[in-house]
Design goal:
Layout: E1 2-9, E2 12-19, E3 22-30, E4 40-49, E5 54-58, E6 65-68, E7 96-103, E8 112-114, E9 119-120, E10 124-127, E11 133-135, H1 142-155, E12 161-164, H2 173-196, E13 201-204, H3 209-217, E14 224-227, H4 230-243, E15 251-253, H5 262-265, H6 268-275, E16 279-281, E17 287-292, E18 296-302, H7 312-333, E19 338-343, H8 350-364, E20 371-376, E21 382-386, H9 393-398
Helix pairs in contact: 3-4, 7-8
Domain S1 motif: 38-103
Enzyme class: hydrolase
Cofactor: Mg(2+)
């Protein structure tokens, strides 16, 4: 049983995805003051720094945004110059520029912006000037990948590009074409608005959390969706009728009893609290210690009370396997970003090390956020990276 549980409270929407009652995804967003990623602005270049190959752009949100030279060059690698030019040859102070936020302001840093524009739809990501077709690597069938790539090539015009999403697997060309038309029309409206707007100005707001969650997560494998707010439920019904009408019957309105709130009824609050503890227990008796620094996240694996049933190597291996699966889950729930270092318990057998790494790699495969397992370091640690675009979910509700 796979369920989506949505709790709306004032200006905040929290969404949990449960597999057989266990928390595997968690999203939270305030209605105001957040969600810059995906927004498109007409900005003005304030300063160009040749030594950093970067520029700072005023997009009207207070702190100037950071634009690196790679995000100014053509999105298609084959169309970029053989030798990277100086950023001074591309932009000048005072120049007006259309940019899209790719990373929220984090800590003392301003937003990261790009000129590689992308507009996500239900079946694909529309890129108005990318000039290539990409297909999600999570689609395993080579035949299906070829079919979707062919559809993309037939549909695209001029310099357009698409990244066809995992959700498009098995989808017919008519639905994909409708998605392309919608995003193409949206980009046209943004282009027109840019002509009549004076920098700094917002040209496009990315969809709010409710639309994003339904667009990106509402798939046929979701058995039911519970929402505890009538207005949010009505909006979700309308969105599903637009994007996936066949799934709209799976929506349920949770009528709040006096005794138990929705997140409590499904043990979501309890699981969120335990997921963000520094010390996290494993079912066998082992545990994780989770520490966050400014540079990276460090996770230490310990056997704890687990003494196993045979020899030490087997005890250590079983603990590490359990830890790998739990870490993959918690990376999503905690929305960890950046460099992650995992100190698994030392194992003597190489094939055990390979199996633990495979368990971790398979565990992160369903993650919607790009996550790359680099592998074992010479010190016997596992290194991975996970893309970070937004502020930590838990921080948003603890402010």
């Amino acid at each position: 049983m796979k369920q989506m549980i949505m709790h709306a409270s004032g200006e905040m929407l929290q969404t949990a995805v449960l597999h057989d009652g266990r928390l595997f995804d968690y999203f939270v967003e305030r209605a105001k003051g957040s969600g810059l990623v995906g927004n498109i602005y007409k900005g003005r270049v304030v300063n160009v720094l040749p030594g950093m190959q970067a520029a700072f752009v005023d997009i009207g949100i207070g702190k100037n945004a950071f634009l690196y030279i790679d995000d100014l060059l053509h999105p298609h690698l084959e169309k970029q110059p053989e030798h990277k030019p100086s950023i001074q040859d591309i932009v000048k102070a005072g120049q007006e520029l259309i940019v899209q936020v790719m990373k929220e302001p984090l800590g003392g840093k301003g937003a990261r912006v790009t000129t590689h524009f992308s507009l996500p739809g239900r079946w694909l990501v529309y890129m108005p000037i990318a000039d290539y077709i990409g297909v999600s690597k999570k689609i395993a069938s080579e035949q299906e990948r070829i079919r979707l790539r062919d559809i993309g090539e037939r549909l695209r015009k001029n310099e357009e590009g698409f990244i066809i999403r995992t959700a498009a697997e098995g989808e017919n060309e008519r639905s994909i074409e409708a998605d392309v038309s919608e995003q193409r029309e949206l980009w046209g409206a943004i282009a027109v608005k840019s002509v009549h707007s004076k920098a700094p100005a917002v040209l496009h707001y990315e969809a709010g959390l409710l639309r994003r969650v339904i667009r990106d997560n509402m798939k046929p494998d979701i058995d039911e969706v519970w929402i505890d707010d009538a207005a949010t439920h009505a909006e979700a019904v309308a969105l599903l009728k637009e994007m996936a009408p066949s799934l709209s019957e799976r929506l349920r309105l949770y009528k709040l009893p006096a005794s138990k709130a929705l997140f409590d009824a499904y043990r979501v609050s309890e699981q969120i609290d335990s997921a963000f503890e520094r010390k996290i227990s494993l079912p066998s008796g082992g545990y994780l210690v989770w520490d966050k620094t400014e540079a990276l996240t460090v996770i230490d694996v310990n056997t704890g009370k687990f003494i196993g049933t045979s020899d030490l190597e087997d005890t250590v291996f079983q603990t590490n396997m359990e830890a790998a699966a739990e870490i993959a889950r918690l990376l999503r729930v905690r929305d960890v970003g950046g460099i992650v270092i995992i100190d698994f318990i030392d194992m003597e057998l190489e094939h055990n090390r390979e199996r633990v790494l495979h368990q971790l790699t398979e565990g992160i495969r369903p993650d919607h956020t790009k996550c790359t397992v680099v592998g074992w370091t010479r010190l016997g640690l596992v290194e991975l990276t996970r893309k970070k675009a937004r502020e930590n979910s838990y921080a948003n509700i603890r402010e």
